[in-house]
Amino acid sequence: MGGVLPSWNETPTRSAIIGFVERVTTGADAVPVEERIAVFDNDGTLWTEKPMPTEMFFVLGRLAAMAEADPALRDRQPWKAAHENDHAWLSEVFVKHYGGDDADLKVLMGGFVAAFAGVDVDSYGTSAAEFVKTTHPALNRAYAACAYQPMVELLRYLEEHGFTVFIASGGNRDFMRGFAADVYSLPPERIIGSSNELAYTENEDGGSVVYQERPDIFDDGPAKPVRIWSRIGRRPLVVGGNSNGDVPMLRWAGGADRSGLRLLVLHDDVEREFDYVHGAEKALEAAKSDGWTVISVKDDWSTVFVDPGS
Question: What pTM does this model have?
Answer without folding.
Answer: 0.93
